[in-house]
């Protein structure tokens, strides 16, 4: 058996998220179907770096799986891409040690979130950015970002529905936001992320950008460790899993 | 009766083109359904500047229609956008003289075509640009563009299936192509365009970029007045109707 690591891109618009579910079109379902075809009907289980929700995109998701086949790596990539629909693309396939695990071995993840900040919507961005037509003070949002960097308990900024056990302490190495043309790009790099964490944080930063909160409120909110202290989770379509480091 | 002119944007990915067809999702079908709803069940016929094919996008299509209602223009826009799905957006509604015609009064149209020029495809561009992984000499493509500007008989560069009667002479005011990051942007401004004209021209320019033809062949091809002299029509998803001038 050989363990293979794949790096992939997918447009989350037409998937019911990553995780396999009966009767739903999911990234895992489509990938496992393609692998099963390559393995003459034998089921092959894949393991992602983490799940993504319905509508969330990936530019650099990673998965691993085991295969009895000894295929040159370029052929793996080509064979998989031939079998996959046009909204998933395998960028790289590598042979890794049998001890490698796509989820447990993650040392850093990078997410980006895009806000389409204009008076009127753009139909071409509707699945790829969150349309936000209200005035924003980007400078105060940038100050807020700085308060999030470092090691904190992110209970306030994670879904109350999450079933995460153990510590909700995580380290964020980078939290930035920049105006790029009509869009605001948020970059989050961290040791790990709790369920809905990026989307809840972006919601609070947008509150700060609108002047509904102060940037310095972040410290108070972190210390509350209570999801109810903050507002709504922003929509999935602005979120991209960009890179996973091992 | 008041004549109204609308400027609209649509993502062509999930439409079977502009023109109404029974049982198909078309831009005209969706627009007329929304207008019929606003007119208490009375059918309202719309007239576009021209049709667009399946998969072709619009950033500035225009239509006109007649209505017995006297509604402030901002309300027209808002009412229509409320009734329309998220892949069509009305940017502007104007009252125009009853003699105005969205098709017959066109004095200039602008189309753009996008080629995604990279070694590997990008899932996020699959509906919005033509993926072309082969080497291209953009400088010779730019020379070819110059040969197309001006007044010519474009029979060679229009679909043989077209039912256009009368002259196939058109004037192109601008034909340009520029590398923009991983994409090549073509801009076409002209007095009018024959069926498939932009997509056939882009195919020939890409042949020139690959060195399969010389830029100066354009003059010879124009003089042949024969669609069979040139190669295939490039895919619809790279094409955008950007602006219509009256």
- Helical element count of chain A? 5
- Report the C-alpha radius of gyration of chain A, rounded: 19 Å
The overall average pLDDT of chain A, rounded, is 95
DSSP E strands of chain A, number: 10
Total discrete domains of chain A = 2
CATH topology of the largest domain in chain A: Alpha-Beta Plaits
CATH architecture of the largest domain in chain A: 2-Layer Sandwich
State the CATH superfamily name of the largest domain in chain A. Answer: Pseudouridine synthase I, catalytic domain, C-terminal subdomain
Could you spell the SSE succession of chain A in H and E letters?
A: EHEEHEEEHEEEHHE
The CATH class designation of the largest domain in chain A is Alpha Beta
Give the percentage of residues in beta strands of chain A: 25-35%
Termini separation of chain A comes to: 22 Å
| Shape, per Cα inertia axes of chain A | globular
Largest sheet of chain A: 10 strands, mixed
Largest interface: A-B, 16 and 16 residues
Catalytic activity (chains A, B): uridine(38/39/40) in tRNA = pseudouridine(38/39/40) in tRNA
Family (chains A, B): Belongs to the tRNA pseudouridine synthase TruA family.
Domain Pseudouridine synthase I TruA alpha/beta (chains A, B): 9-105, 144-246
Binding site for substrate (chains A, B): 111
